[in-house]
Specification:
globular
Length: 152
Amino acid sequence: MASKGPYRALLLAIAIGSAAAAYAVPWLITPYDPSIPWYQSTAFFPRVALSLATMGALIELVKPHARIEGSDEIDASESNVRVALIVVATFVAYALLVPVLGLLISTAAFSVLAGLVAGLRIRTALALAIPLAIVLWVVFAKLLLVAFGGFL
């Protein structure tokens, strides 16, 4: 495995950055109405998404990375930090844009971008992103009545 220092620093930066963004979500959303119940607030979904990013980075930071001889584990030295940073930046942008653009548009855009970064063809990314965005929009915006702001 390559040096763990930069990898651990990146995970710590992701954890701190996403936690700070989750804390700042109410100030980033305009207009933000604090009288709405927390589970229907426009801050609910971005905070959940950013909290998951924070927890994922912290779990990855503290879990042991023992190298077992002959295992099928992926060697982290072959990982692409640039792609990881692009995905994290896209995820944070997604969480912050949901209240502005709405869940449907933001989810579709994020899913397409994530698919393209993962190496999917544009048709495949669109074929996966559009139904996913519609299902999430119906479940959260229509059934659970979570307010996302934005257009849709």
